[in-house]
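Researcher: I'm preparing a figure for a lab meeting and need a structural model of a single chain. I don't have an experimental structure, so a prediction will have to do for now. The sequence is pasted below. Please return the structure as tokens so I can convert it later.
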Amino acid sequence: MRRAVCPGSFDPVTNGHLDIVGRAGRLFDEVIVGVLINHSKTGLFTIDERIDMLRQATAGYGNVRVESFHGLLVDFCRAQGAAVVIKGLRAVSDFDYELQMAQMNIGLSGVETLFMPTNPLYSFLSSSLVKDVVKWGGDASSYVPDFVGERLVTRLRQN
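Model: Understood. Here is the structure written out token by token.
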């Protein structure tokens, strides 16, 4: 079975993330969306909330599952039986950082990284940008699934 991991914080999941996951799902037998638990960062949504939103957003994909992990990505890949990491690239600046990570990962464990360019519709999109737009009263509905947009509005406009 060809299995790949799409890692990230997904705080929250965007349509850009889902584009990469869906395209990866056409290339691999199984795609595992790995939600990084980073105790040194406080996200807008808890890990459980992020996993719930991702599971809901990917429910229509028959070969995608969502799991959380902490520690090294390569250890998570090994535990999941995945030899490939899929990373979406929005711009050249993403490539500089991701290339270093990919080289470290292959050196540590032999896990390959495949870079997938984002759909031009989402080339500017990030979770941080979406949160800022919603926080200041803007409409981010075309950049996230509807239920994610509703959660963002509820969370960010209650303060």
